[in-house]
Structures are given as structure tokens and as C-alpha cells.
Amino acid sequence: MTILVPVDMKKNQKILKKIDDKEVLLLCIVDSNVQEIIAEITTEKGWLGDKFTTSFKNALNKQYERLLDRWMHNAETALKKMNKKVESRKEKGNFKEIITKYVDEQNPDKLLFTYKKGYNPYWETLKPVINELCKKLKVTCVIEN
Questions:
Q1: What are φ and ψ of residue 141, in 5° steps?
Q2: Residue 14: is it exposed, middle or buried by C-beta count within 10 angstroms (0-12/13-18/19+)?
Q3: How confident is the model at residue 124, as a pLDDT?
Q4: 44-67 as b/e: b if 16+ CB within 10 A
Q5: Closest among 6, 64, 11, 67 to 56, alpha carbons compared
Q6: In this structure, which long-range contacts are made by residues 66-74, counting pairs with CB atoms below 8 Å and at least 24 apart in sequence?
Q7: What is the separation of C-alpha 85 from the centre of its chain, rounded to a whole number of angstroms?
Q8: Which pLDDT does position 41 carry in this prediction?
């Protein structure tokens, strides 16, 4: 089984075609700390003023939830067309803890993280966490873009 974790919920059909396992668990994680960090970065860089940070963070959360729902639907549909057994899970909480829990419980053959190239604050924020997880967890880790 492959656990597929999209970092930024961007559509990427090429990656789905590379999955060779018959079973796929789509694990979509909403970690509000990530959106908060992104909002803080925009404030620190001077792109937004302090008073807009909270409303920007809320907008990021709403956008991320919409992207997540659309991504899950599209990925599930595409994988089913490839005759894969697909299960989708949406989790809220700490990204690192949720990944660790799922790897421990599901014992997958592969943990696949996906993201889109280019300016990507979600990837930049989660990259060190993912690299640490890949070193720590006893599973084959693949990062695709």
C-alpha cells in the first residue's frame, strides 16, 4: 500500500500514474500551524500589515480546505480509473504526528509526498518536517513534484 500525502493540494496527474501499488490511501492533512507560519512570513516580508495577518490566515485556511476537497475528489476519480483500491482520509492536526500515526497503524510499503514546483510556501514550510520524517520512519519515502 502507498500512502499519498499532497503537501499543497495542487493537481498533478503525472504523479498518480507513477503509483504502482494496487492500494492507495490518500491522506490529506490540514495543519493550522502551517497556515499560521505562512501568514507570519508574509507579514515579516512586508507583503501584508500586522492587522491583515489574522484575516489572511483565515482566508488561507478556507482556500486550503477547498483545494483539499477538490484534490481528493480528482485524485480518487483518477486512481479508480486505473483500477486502484482507494481510501481517502482528511485529518486536522499536527502534520508530523498524523504522518507518524498512519505509518505506524497502516504499515505502508511507501510514503509518497507530492508538491508542485515553483513558489510554494506550503512546501517550503513542510520540507524540513518531511525530510526529518523520511529519516526517522521505517518506510520507503518518495518526494515527487
A1: -110, 130
A2: exposed
A3: 84
A4: eeeebeeeebeebbeebbeebeeb
A5: 64
A6: 67/8, 67/9, 67/10, 68/9, 68/28, 68/30, 70/9, 71/6, 71/9, 71/10, 71/11, 71/28, 72/26, 72/28, 74/11
A7: 20
A8: 65
Round to whole Å and give the CA distance between 121 and 63.
14
Q: At what angle do helices 121-136 and 95-106 cross, to 10 degrees?
A: 40
Taking the C-alpha atoms of residue 134 and residue 120, their distance in angstroms, rounded to an integer, is: 20
Grid cell, residue 70, equals 477538490
- Tell me the residue ranges of DSSP E strands in the chain: 2-6, 23-30, 85-92, 110-114, 140-144
- Give the three-state DSSP class for 115: coil
Q: Which amino acid is at 91?
A: E
**Under-50 pLDDT residues of the chain:** none
Q: What pLDDT score does 50 carry?
A: 62
- When computed from its CA atoms, the radius of gyration of the chain, rounded to whole angstroms, is 16
| pLDDT score at 82 | 94
The amino acid occupying position 46 is G
Rounded Cα distance, 84 and 24, in Å: 7
pTM score, whole prediction: 0.85
